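Worked example

This section walks through a single chain of length 698. The input is the sequence exactly as stored; nothing has been trimmed or padded.
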Amino acid sequence: MKIDKVLASSIRLVLASSLSGVAFGAQAQDTQGDRVLETVRVSASAVNEDATNLAASYSILDGQALFERSQATLGDTLNSIPGVNSDTFGGGSSRPVIRGQTAPRVAVLSDSAALLDASNISPDHAVTAEPLLIDRIEVLRGPATLLYGSGAIGGVVNVLDKKIPTVLPENGLQGSFGLRGNSFAKEKAGAFEITAQATENLVLHAEAMMRDADDYRARGLDESRVHGTFSESQNASLGMSWVGERGYLGLAYSYRDDGYGVPGHSHEYEGCHPHGSALHCGSHDDHDHDHDHEHEHEAVPEISLLSKRIDLRGELADPFAGVERVRLRASHTDYRHYELEEGVVATTFENDGYEARVEVQHREIGPFKGVVGMQLAQNEFAALGSEAFMPRVKSRTIGVFAVEHVEVGESWHFELGARQEWQKHSPLNDSRGRPQFDDSATSVSAAAIWQFVPDYSLTLAVTRSERMPHAQELYARGIHLATNTYECGLVPHPLTCGGVENNATLETETSSNIEVTLKKNVGDLTFSVGAYHNEIDDYIYARTLDQFEDFRLIKYTQGDAEFTGLEAEATYRFNETFSATLFGDAVRAELKNGGDLPRIPASRYGTRLNANVQSLSGELEYYRVNEQDNIADFESVTPGYDMLNLTLSYSPRGERGAVVYLRGTNLLDEVVWNHASYLAHVVPLPGRGVTAGLRVSF
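Given that input, the structure is written out below as C-alpha cells.
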C-alpha cells in the first residue's frame, strides 16, 4: 500500500472534485507566485504518476479531514463528496452510492482487494471497512475502474489502511490514538494504531478500535429516538512487513465483530408469496390481499457480524529491465453474520472466499506507459434460515486488464484501457436445480486530456463496459424483509418465479458512458465542471410485478436505461486565511421505455467557508438537498431539506501532535429523509448533534 500524505494541514476545505481529478490539499507557490496544487497520486489508478494527468475522475479524503468527517459507516463518511451519496439503513449500515448507483455496480476495496462481505446482497448488511482505522479513501470513476472489475460501472471506493507497513517508521516508532463521541447517538468510540521497527527490515503493526452507540435522536417520528438504530463494533489487526530499499512484502490478520439494529425490518408480510406474477398475502382461503397485523409491535431485529481476514501485500520497484514496479495483493476472508429475532438466530449469511491480483507497471514502450495485470477471485456464498432467498452459490471470476498512458507534446495526454473477464456461478446442492451461469465480458475505455491554455484542461472520457449478473440477480427466490420484497431472479420460471409471461433470454448488460470535464487547478480560483451520460443496454433492475401495501413482488428484469448527471465545484482563496467553495451535483436515471429508476439521490447545491488562523481552523458548510419527485411508480415524493454544519479544530503542532475538534451537524435540526435509502419514509437521519474528537499522533 502506497500512502501519500496530501491533506496534512488543518481542515482542508474541499474533499476533492468528484469529476475533476483534482484533490484539494496543501498548496505551494510556483515561480510566478501562483498557488498550485501539490502533486497528488492515486493508488487505485495503479500508475505511479501525477494524478492531474489521469483521465479518471476521482476524489480523495484523508488526513485530518477524514478524521473529522468520519462516521460510523463508510457510506455516511463519504456522503459529502459531490456525486457520492449513501443508502443509509439505520445506525449500523450504509453503502456508497456513486452517480445514482450502488452495489453491485459500485466496488468497495481494501487496498485494491475485494472486501468479500455481504454488503452487495442487501442494504442492511454492513460494509466491513472501519472509518476510524482508514488512512485514506479514494473514490474513482472512469477508465481506471476497469482495473477492478467490469461490474464497477458506477465507480470504485478504494480504502487504504496502515495494517501492513510499507515503509520504515520515522525514528523506529510511529502511531496515533483517537477518541470520539457525539450527542445524537451518545456514541463513544476510540482507536489506536502503532508501527514499530523490530529489526533493520522487519516492521510490526497493531491497531484496534471500539465503538458503542445508542439509538440516535431524530425529528420526524413520535419518539425522539429512532428505535433500532443502535450499533457497536470492535476491530483489531496485527501485521508485519519486510521493508527493503526497493519495496516490501507483508502479511496481516484482521478481526471484526459488529452488532447493530435493523430498523424498518418487519414480519408483517412474511406470509406473502407469489402465484405466478401475482402476490398473495394471507391464507389461501382469502380471495384478496387480506393479512393480519400481529407483528406490528415486534422487537427490532439485530445483526451479529463476524469477519476474519488475512491480507498479503507486496510491491517491488525495478525488478528487471522494462518493469518499473510489480504489485501483489491477495486476501482470504471468512465472513458470517446472524440475523437475530428476539435473540434467536433466524437467518445466517456466510461468505468464504479469496482473491489475488498481480499488477505490472511497465516502462515506456514507444509512446506507451501503463500497467497490465491479472485477477482471480473465488467465493462461496450461502443464506440459511427463514430468509434464505438464495441458494448456496460458488462464484469464480478471472480477469486480465491493461491501462496505458500516452503523452503527445505538452498539451495532450491519452489513456486507453481494456479488461477481459470470465465469470462462473454454480449453485450447490440446490433443490430447485437451478443451472450454472458461465459467460465472459469485454470492456474498453479511452480518454483524452487537452491542456488548451496554461492551467486549464478539458477531459473527454468514453467507456464501454459489459457487466455480468450478480448471483442474487440470477437465483433469488424468496422473501427479503429488509427491502419488503419477494424476489424472483433472472433464471426463468418455473426454476424461480414471476410467471412464464415474464421469462426472457439473458443478455449482457452493456454500459456506454461519456463524460466531459473542464477544470482549472492553478491560482486563487480553482474549479471543475463536468457532465456525464451513461446509456446502459439490458440494464438489470427489480421490476415490480405486484404490490400489497408496502410489500412488493419483484422480478429481476432487463431493460434499457440512461443516467445523466452534472457535478461542479469551485474554490476561491481570498488570502492565506480565508477561502470559499461552491459545489453541486445532480443525476437523473430513467428507463428508456418509460419510468424513473428508484432510490436516485436528489440534486443538491451548497457552499463551504473556510478559515485557518495559525493553529485554529474552521469550516461552515451549508447545502440544500432538493425535493425528489422523479420517482418510480411505487415510490413517494421525498421532501427537500437544508443542512448546516460547523467544524472547529485546534492543532498546535500540525499533523504530528494533538488535534482537537468540535463538529456540529444538522444545526437547523431538520427532518431528513434519504431518498436513496430503502427506508426513505420510515427511518429519518439523525437530527441536531455535536461530535467531539481528539487525536494524538507521535
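What to look for: The chain is about 0% helix and 55% strand.
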